[in-house]
């Protein structure tokens, strides 16, 4: 019998949650070990998935299908293509890193790790579901652990941030639910099957427009697209370090993933007519996010707004509908995941030591914390798009893909790169160069545990930057097929 | 007219409940104080037997008492909701007497009598039977609401419920007299047929309107919802749990049945009640949610939540199709477990801490993680978060609405769901997030019955969400025979 590898990747963390719940409250070390092991097993399975994945195929692989609620045609239907496999790997990797980064949690350890493992299952589930009902269940189920993780272990303003996050995303998802139901009842025979709906294109153009907008509200809030982004800085700033990593690294990708997985293949006509508005929103995200980031005094807020800006590139690539542009978008999703993941980890490191994130409170850290500075610089340069690092490849592909389609928009959005370089370099200068602060003299440099969570991400950042082909090859076939569909080739 | 030919097999479940109630009442006199726990077992057994006896009704459709008493899969399903609700309420209130020094035997027998009344109501195929059932159910309910008679709030609750309930009964009766006057029959079926031949459009509309006003009182529909928060707040908490499910369900059942009989008649007279019901549904959802947001007493908050849920259920009535009615059945089962569950947690907390304010819930997670987790499950289910039962209920309701193009109702429904999350989160927040000002009270003690009850209800709240196939089959079956002919 074939190994149900997608089920394993998805539900091994949940198994871990059950084990954690059965453990004693006092065995904090044991709980952390168990969580690491289960998250690690899920990562190993996701690597196995990458190894066994047939890169030449555009369609879905590792399909698992079983009836779940037959009276309304809902099935337990899993499968991955080039797009989702990239996201599954990213989720497993960042979750593992985040578990290690959570070792510092001292309060209610058992609940924290149980919720975290539940979150990992829900996130992975979103990327492997091929049935709308299942997709929605995972999509929503993710909100609950996230709400608690921000609300219990977050910063001073955590309650406000947690409820804002929950309400905003729920509002988006219920709009999505209505869209899903509308599609279900309009399709003949009624179906929640994403693959079938993508292949059949059963909807009239006018209907597509309405459903596209409803879905877009759900996805735009997650991305987040301006003006639906206001939950993000709050959630990111208040969330504990590991959760910020997950928010930026994985959760933001779900919006873009939804557009590529659902809106585009099922509603191509509507998507085509919304291409230009999407591109314009993308530019607003890029420029506005960067400008606001530049104005931040809080390091974590700066990184949070840089995410808003960077997700604009993803949106731009998606709007271009070219193979290169969409490859770039997915590449950017992946690259942003690992780069911003590292940035949030690094912010967490410095906050642990100084108990402040105020950029102006630092200075000359390069002398005091050389390893930290080195890694921070690498992550920052990757984020601002220095050639040779992952961010550059992604942004370059997005621009190449989009330039052919909307030249003026791309030219404007290129300004974003300059602003990004501006705020990041300015931040580096203020924090790491100049005169060292006396009060920070005794800070220890990165510990072994911190290095374990950071180094793999840096290696990937450089590796992809230097030799991006393996990861592009992963998604290329699927994106090519989607691009052909969208442009009617 | 002959009342001699009563088909006892059809009314067997009701008879079992009445007999159980009488047995409990008599046993209460004979059993010594220390052994009163036997009454608890007797009540539970009585309900269990009634459940077994009622099971047969799932497969047949028949009437007795000259059509005044209807037994079909739909009524049977609803009776299951009543009986399970009564079972859970009894299960979770073993030590009620110890705390409030109430008489256990009377309490259980009143619960059984009320359940009996509601069961009769569910089976009523005749105006008189509706009224009789309603009163048989309501009078024990009035007493139950004011049961903690040493407590001023409970007194107020009982009186308020009684006065308003009596008004609504009178209004209902007034509406019925119009319908009878126009149609010359009290049988719902005959009235429906008489409508098609009648030209008295205004009289019928007026009569039905007044009838509806009386009925919506029971269903906790806005604007006849005023009594709900006060009554729930003042009633003993298990009683409030009972009301939140059973009383509401009964109102909906009557409305569904009446509309099923009258729909053809209304159509031929060109009367569209759907519009009125839709407006009521929207109002109920909005008032239940928006006013709920500002509550600081958990019982009042749950009362407003129950009003909002009545609004969601009304969407199913407006849709009016088989799918709509199925969705109501599914919703009722989901609501049954999560609502009684949430009230049960309130019972435990108020017993331990002496109150039901939000502040009594602060830090519950530290005192009893299991209890807090159960409450979280019930609240998230009430908010409609998957994969819990409440999500499934809402999913089917909204699906039915979208299928029949009631887009406004669906949109208002999902928007109020989002807002309602805000107030459920208020409770979650104090249970989990607050790190200071925890009220001082001893560790929360949970009685064995309550423990079993909470485990059962959380289990079903998960199960119905994760594996709803049997529930969907029940819902389909209960509607198939009834609406299909």
H/I helix tally of chain A: 21
> How helix-rich are the residues of chain A, as a percent range?
over 70%
Mean pLDDT rating of chain B: 88
Distance between the termini of chain A: 39 Å
Number of helices of chain B: 20
Evaluate the radius of gyration of chain A: 21 Å
Percent in strands of chain A: under 5%
Strand content of chain B: under 5%
* Arrangement of strands in the largest sheet of chain B: 1-2
Largest sheet of chain A: 2 strands, antiparallel
Termini of chain B, distance in Å?
25 Å
Model regions low in confidence, pLDDT < 50 over at least 5 residues of chain A: none
Segments of chain B where pLDDT lies below 50 for 5+ residues? none
Integer-rounded radius of gyration of chain B = 21 Å
Number of strands of chain B: 2
Order of helices and strands of chain A: HHEEHHHHHHHHHHHHHHHHHHH
Largest interface: A-B, 31 and 30 residues
- Percent helix range of chain B: over 70%
Number of beta-strand segments of chain A: 2
Form type of chain A? globular
List the helices and strands and how they pair.
The complex is a heterodimer of chains A (489) and B (485).
Chain A: H1 5-22, H2 28-52, E1 61-69, E2 74-80, H3 82-101, H4 109-128, H5 132-141, H6 143-153, H7 158-186, H8 194-200, H9 205-222, H10 231-238, H11 241-266, H12 268-273, H13 275-294, H14 299-320, H15 323-354, H16 365-368, H17 370-383, H18 390-403, H19 407-432, H20 448-466, H21 469-486
Antiparallel strand pairs in A: 1-2
Chain B: H1 12-30, H2 37-54, E1 62-64, E2 69-71, H3 73-91, H4 96-100, H5 104-123, H6 127-145, H7 152-183, H8 188-197, H9 201-219, H10 227-234, H11 237-269, H12 273-293, H13 298-319, H14 322-353, H15 364-367, H16 369-383, H17 389-403, H18 407-432, H19 448-466, H20 469-484
Antiparallel strand pairs in B: 1-2
């Amino acid at each position: 019998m074939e190994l149900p590898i997608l089920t394993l990747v998805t539900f091994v963390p949940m198994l871990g949650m059950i084990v954690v719940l059965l453990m004693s409250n006092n065995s904090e070390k044991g709980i952390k070990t168990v969580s690491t092991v289960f998250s690690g097993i899920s990562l190993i399975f996701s690597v196995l998935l990458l190894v066994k994945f047939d890169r030449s195929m555009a369609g879905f692989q590792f399909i698992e299908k079983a009836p779940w609620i037959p009276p309304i045609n809902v099935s337990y239907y899993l499968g991955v293509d080039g797009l989702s496999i990239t996201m599954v790997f990213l989720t497993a990797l960042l979750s593992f890193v985040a578990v290690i980064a959570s070792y510092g949690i001292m309060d209610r350890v058992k609940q924290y790790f149980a919720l975290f493992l539940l979150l990992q299952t829900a996130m992975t589930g979103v990327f492997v579901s091929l049935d709308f009902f299942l997709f929605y269940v995972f999509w929503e189920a993710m909100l609950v652990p996230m709400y608690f993780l921000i609300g219990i272990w977050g910063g001073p303003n955590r309650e406000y941030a947690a409820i804002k996050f929950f309400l905003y995303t729920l509002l988006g998802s219920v709009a999505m639910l209505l869209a899903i139901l509308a599609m279900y009842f309009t399709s003949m025979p009624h179906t929640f099957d994403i693959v079938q709906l993508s292949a059949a294109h059963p909807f009239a153009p006018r209907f597509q427009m309405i459903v596209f907008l409803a879905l877009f509200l759900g996805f735009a809030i997650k991305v987040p697209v301006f003006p639906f982004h206001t939950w993000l800085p709050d959630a990111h700033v208040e969330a504990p370090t590991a959760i910020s990593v997950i928010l930026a690294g994985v959760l933001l990708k779900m919006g873009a993933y939804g557009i590529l997985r659902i809106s585009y293949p099922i509603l191509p006509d509507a998507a085509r007519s919304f291409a230009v508005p999407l591109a314009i929103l993308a530019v607003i995200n890029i420029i506005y996010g960067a400008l606001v980031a530049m104005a931040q005094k809080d390091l974590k807020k700066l990184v949070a707004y840089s995410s808003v800006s960077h997700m604009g590139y993803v949106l731009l690539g998606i709007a271009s509908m070219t193979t290169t542009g969409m490859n770039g978008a997915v590449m950017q999703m992946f690259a942003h995941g690992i780069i911003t993941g590292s940035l949030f980890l690094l912010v967490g490191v410095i906050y642990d030591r100084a108990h402040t994130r105020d950029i102006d409170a630092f200075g000359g850290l390069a002398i005091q914390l050389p390893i930290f500075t080195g890694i921070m610089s690498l992550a920052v340069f990757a984020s601002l798009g220095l050639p040779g690092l992952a961010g550059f490849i992604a942004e370059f592909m997005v621009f190449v893909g989009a330039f052919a389609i909307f030249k003026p928009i791309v030219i404007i959005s290129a300004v974003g790169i300059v602003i990004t370089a501006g705020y990041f370099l300015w931040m580096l200068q203020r924090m790491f160069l100049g005169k060292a602060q006396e009060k920070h003299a005794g800070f220890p440099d990165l510990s072994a545990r911190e290095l374990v969570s950071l180094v793999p991400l840096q290696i990937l950042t450089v590796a992809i930057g230097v030799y991006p082909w393996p990861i592009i090859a992963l998604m290329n076939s699927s994106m090519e097929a989607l691009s052909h569909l969208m442009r009617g080739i | 007219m002959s009342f001699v030919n009563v088909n006892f097999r059809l009314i067997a479940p009701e008879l079992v409940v009445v007999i159980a109630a009488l047995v409990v009442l008599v046993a209460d006199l004979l059993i010594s104080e220390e052994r009163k726990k036997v009454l608890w077992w007797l009540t539970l057994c009585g309900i269990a037997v009634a459940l077994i006896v009622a099971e047969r009704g799932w497969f047949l459709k028949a009437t007795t008492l000259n059509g005044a008493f209807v037994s079909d899969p739909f009524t049977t399903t609803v009776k299951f909701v009543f009986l399970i609700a009564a079972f859970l309420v009894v299960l979770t209130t073993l030590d009620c007497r110890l705390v409030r020094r109430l008489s256990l035997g009377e309490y259980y027998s009143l619960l059984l009598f009320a359940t009996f009344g509601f069961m009769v109501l569910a089976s009523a195929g005749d105006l008189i039977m509706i009224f009789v059932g309603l009163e048989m159910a309501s009078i024990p309910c009035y007493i139950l609401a004011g049961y903690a008679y040493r407590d001023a709030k409970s007194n107020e609750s009982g009186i308020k419920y009684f006065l308003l309930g009596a008004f609504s009964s009178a209004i209902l009766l007034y509406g019925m007299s119009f319908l009878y006057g126009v149609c010359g029959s009290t049988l719902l079926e005959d009235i429906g047929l008489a409508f098609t031949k009648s030209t008295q459009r205004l009289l019928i509309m007026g009569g039905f309107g007044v009838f509806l006003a009386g009925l919506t009182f029971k269903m906790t529909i806005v604007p006849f919802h005023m009594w709900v928060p006060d009554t729930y707040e003042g009633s003993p908490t298990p009683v409030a749990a009972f009301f939140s499910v059973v009383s509401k369900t009964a109102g909906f059942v009557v409305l569904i049945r009446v509309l099923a009989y009258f729909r053809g008649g209304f159509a031929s007279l060109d009367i569209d009640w759907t519009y009125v019901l839709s407006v009521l549904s929207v109002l109920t959802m909005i008032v239940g949610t928006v006013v709920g947001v500002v509550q600081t007493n958990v019982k009042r908050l749950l009362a407003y939540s129950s009003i909002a849920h009545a609004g969601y259920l009304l969407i199913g009535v407006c849709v009016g199709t088989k799918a709509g009615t199925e969705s109501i059945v599914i919703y009722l089962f989901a609501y049954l477990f999560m609502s009684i569950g949430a009230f049960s947690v309130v019972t435990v907390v108020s017993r331990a801490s002496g109150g039901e304010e939000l502040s009594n819930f602060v830090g519950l997670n530290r005192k009893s993680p299991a209890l807090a987790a159960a409450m979280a499950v019930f609240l998230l289910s009430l908010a409609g978060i998957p994969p819990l039962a409440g999500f499934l209920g809402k999913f089917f309701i909204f699906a039915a609405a979208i299928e029949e193009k009631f887009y406004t109702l669906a949109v208002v429904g999902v928007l109020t769901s989002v807002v309602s999350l805000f107030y459920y989160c208020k409770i979650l927040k104090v249970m989990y997030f607050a790190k200071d000002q925890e009220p001082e009270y001893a560790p929360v003690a949970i009685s064995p019955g309550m423990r079993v009850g909470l485990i059962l209800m959380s289990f079903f709240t998960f199960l119905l969400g994760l594996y709803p196939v049997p529930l969907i089959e029940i819902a389909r079956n209960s509607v198939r025979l009834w609406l299909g002919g």
